[in-house]
């Protein structure tokens, strides 16, 4: 956030706390709805009410579309029914749907009743689509013209709809039944004779998305084909709305956050509130589940240690490299799973590529493991003796180094392959691959690493 | 990727391998440049040459802008100088700059010489901006009109530039010196009398970005304010170009990939090639550094184990929970660092928030640690005895459970705070916070966890 903006936000926050109406209005004049939403989020409940009163219904309508979903219900609640109607009537339909999805079922019905018949119907039909589908995300306020119009008729038609249209970057051409048959650009209207038939100007729209498709699919389509707008259609190819590039940015940011958080063993949906404004209880709930599950899983490594007690107590020096062997597996497994999960998220990998991934990561793991094993073997065989550690009689540091090195190589190789294949396996059984990320893999290969280390060491050192 | 598309891509690939020119052309007709670029990337070098020949200079020009940077030089090399000129002259200037940034210095000069004087000058001036700045990313082919024009003059002016203009979503108004003074929408031109002065129609452009600013800043601005285009200006506020929302999508995806990979201990820039097409040597180089550094760091944990030999050998049962205590710290530290790093990436956290973050994570860590510690204490005190493990005489399982529980609580609390604060500390000393993510924190708290566990256990069990 730019310094200047942070500065104004601070001043505005102070003015709110002092309940200084004039100053609040003065500072807020320079702020855009997303900035005002940040300010709103930072405040305590009473100050929020003061701020929304100060801004007035008209400005607060734009702010409401930007505040985190958990705060929407309280924000609306505070207004009188006629103000609520004013807010809900004047807000763009995609934002209205978002807002209504954030309130309780009972409240939603009340709010819907406030709307005029036409808005009520269109809102109800949008609410049928899930929040994370293309239909749930689209805006329906777009430029549409009929194929049989002339340029002049199209311009006149659009002029009457101008106010309620979010973007004219693309104007869609439909037939009488509402079916999408192509698109024109506003420039085609501006720079062509008025009697030109639209039919002669239209170009095919090659990319469309079904209203029931996942919103991420729409965002990926916009990203791949560098589009600013993608039309959303129903099964009969009727044009319902569009998803714009700024929607796509939001969708992709949400999905990235989700993947990153899942990858760290944080469950549930990311809060729309900022990190600091999210309640401790929410953080707690999202983190404890995995922490507990992984703790139970980690006891398996403890059981391995108990089983191999005789190896460790015979040559206690083995414990010097035990945490390292174990950790190297977690680290390389985490790297491999991250690469594979990201490649899947970007649509680069299909389940059919499993064999190619396994072969690639096997060679990578063997290479990384051999080099790392060699380095560690040198340390174990030649540097460790200089510290005169306690060892049994006839102990060979060269054999010790070789054992540690081989264990490292084996652990890194297997962990790399496990790390790469588990996310693919998860997707095969319809689990979200991001869930099987670093922490789960680390805990798993902790146990396998100990088994490898103790077996290699006991075999080579004759324990 | 949709099935239909994958299907055509497969057929096209087969046709290329059979060197069947007609079929290649037939299948490629249905493919868009980004799809053709995917196909190109999948092929071996000779097949690539065949494909680019089959497509012809005109179509391949659009494909070239989409292929991974590492393949650009070879792709261009293969054409004759006059074809190279044709490609470089006809490609949009931002793509031309991207391509020239991907080739060697010597080749770049050769290619620049091929261009006409005007294009050469404008390209050279764009090349001055770093690849990751707003200036290096912008397109200069935009609609610009002078404030003193009328609507008619503006339309005529834009008409002549229509072909070379990427977007007319926003038309910028400049003064004689090139300074940005506002914007109009194409609809303002289309729906207003021809003699209206532009000056009366323009609205302020409140958001601009400096050409030298980081491209991520531009993308975040587009995302925050739901913009489709942001103008790029120099220090004197002269309009240089624009960054569009589809650029922002690309920038944000690249940055997310970078953050995710850094968070898993993968160094260097992400390859533009897909995971499977990236060479093993590249993967190896990006992964080995951290793997090696973390392995050395992990020996610290081994040293701790050696130091506390007497504790472990006295009550070997302690090893049952050792991996769990250690891992719980890594897991909770990883969760905390992920939340904080993501919050910083989204611009939600400033270094001044350190105390608030520390206090929040301390309470969270204490809460998570106490609950987890209690669960584990119950297991240690009441379930473990049922397995009749070997223990010294007079051993109290209740004390043992209490010791394990307290160690878990202490380890989770400290690791959570460490995990949250290290990334903030990294940013304070101008390091990329994403680098200090899960693997580094895990390795660090491995060692501290062992110290905590052994000290608590030896104190409470009197060892």
3D architecture notes:
Two copies of one chain form a homodimer. Chain A is mostly helical and 463 residues long. The first copy, chain A, folds into three domains: 127 residues, MgtE N-terminal domain-like (MgtE N-terminal fold); 111 residues, CBS-domain (Roll); 181 residues, Tetracycline Repressor, domain 2 (Orthogonal Bundle). Chain A is 65% helix and 7% strand. The first copy, chain A, has 21 helices and six strands. A three-stranded mixed β-sheet of chain A has the order 1-2-3. In chain A, helix 1 crosses helix 3, helix 4 packs parallel to helix 6 and helix 18 runs parallel beside helix 20. The longest helix of chain A is centred in the last third of the chain and has 32 residues. The model of chain A has no long low-confidence stretch (mean pLDDT 88). Chains A and B meet through helix 11, strand 2, helix 12, helix 14 and helix 15 of A and helix 11, strand 2, helix 12, helix 14 and helix 15 of B.
- CATH-derived topology of the largest domain in chain A: Tetracycline Repressor, domain 2
Helix content of chain A: 55-70%
Q: Order of strands side by side in the largest beta sheet of chain A?
A: 1-2-3
Derived structural class of chain A: mainly alpha
Rounded to an integer, what's the Rg of chain A over CA atoms? Answer: 30 Å
**Distance between the amino and carboxyl termini of chain A:** 61 Å
CATH architecture of the largest domain in chain A: Orthogonal Bundle
Q: By CATH's scheme, which homologous superfamily of the largest domain in chain A applies?
A: SLC41 divalent cation transporters, integral membrane domain
Largest sheet of chain A: 3 strands, mixed
Query: How many helices of chain A does DSSP assign?
Result: 21
What is the string of SSEs of chain A from the N terminus onward?
HHHHHHHHHHEHEEHHEHEEHHHHHHH
Question: Largest interface, by Cβ-Cβ below 8 angstroms: which chains and how many residues each?
Answer: A-B, 116 and 116 residues
């Amino acid at each position: 956030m730019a310094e200047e903006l942070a500065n104004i936000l601070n001043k505005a926050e102070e003015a709110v706390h002092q309940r200084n109406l004039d100053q609040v209005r003065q500072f807020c004049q320079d702020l855009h709805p997303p900035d005002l939403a940040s300010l709103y989020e930072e405040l305590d409940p009473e100050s929020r009410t003061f701020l929304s009163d100060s801004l007035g219904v008209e400005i607060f309508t734009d702010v409401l579309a930007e505040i985190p979903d958990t705060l929407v219900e309280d924000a609306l609640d505070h207004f009188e029914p006629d103000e609520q109607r004013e807010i809900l009537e004047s807000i763009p339909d995609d934002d209205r749907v978002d807002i209504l999805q954030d309130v309780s079922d009972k409240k939603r019905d009340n709010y819907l009743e406030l709307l005029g018949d036409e808005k009520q119907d269109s809102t109800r039909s949008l609410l049928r689509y899930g929040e994370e589908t293309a239909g749930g995300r689209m805006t329906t306020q777009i430029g549409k013209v009929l194929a049989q119009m002339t340029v002049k008729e199209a311009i006149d038609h659009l002029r009457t709809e101008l106010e309620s249209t979010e973007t004219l970057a693309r104007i869609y051409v439909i037939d009488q039944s509402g079916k999408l048959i192509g698109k024109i650009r506003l420039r085609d209207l501006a720079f062509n004779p008025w009697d030109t038939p639209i039919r002669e100007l239209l170009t095919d729209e090659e990319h469309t998305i079904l209203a029931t498709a996942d919103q991420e699919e729409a965002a990926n389509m916009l990203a791949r084909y560098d589009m600013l707008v993608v039309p959303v259609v129903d099964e009969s190819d009727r044009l319902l709305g569009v998803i714009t590039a700024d929607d796509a940015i939001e969708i992709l940011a949400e999905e990235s956050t989700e993947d990153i958080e899942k990858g760290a063993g944080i469950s549930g949906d990311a809060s729309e509130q900022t990190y600091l404004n999210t309640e401790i209880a929410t953080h707690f709930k999202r983190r404890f589940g995995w922490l507990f599950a992984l703790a139970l899983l980690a006891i398996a490594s403890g059981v391995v240690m108990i089983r191999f007690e005789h190896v460790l107590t015979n040559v206690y020096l083995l414990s010097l490299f035990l945490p390292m062997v174990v950790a190297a597996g977690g680290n390389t497994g985490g790297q491999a799973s991250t690469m594979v999960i990201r490649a899947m998220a970007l649509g680069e990998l299909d389940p059919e590529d499993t064999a190619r991934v396994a072969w690639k990561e096997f060679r990578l793991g063997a290479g990384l493991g051999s080099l790392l094993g060699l380095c560690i073997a040198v340390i174990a065989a030649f540097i460790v003796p200089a510290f005169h550690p306690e060892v049994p009689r006839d102990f060979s540091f060269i054999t010790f180094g070789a054992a540690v090195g081989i264990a490292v190589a084996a652990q890194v190789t297997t962990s790399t392959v496990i790390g790469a294949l588990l996310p693919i396996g998860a997707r095969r059984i319809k689990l979200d691959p991001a869930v099987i990320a670093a922490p789960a893999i680390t805990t798993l290969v902790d146990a396998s690493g100990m088994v490898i280390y103790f077996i290699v060491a006991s075999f080579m050192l004759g324990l």
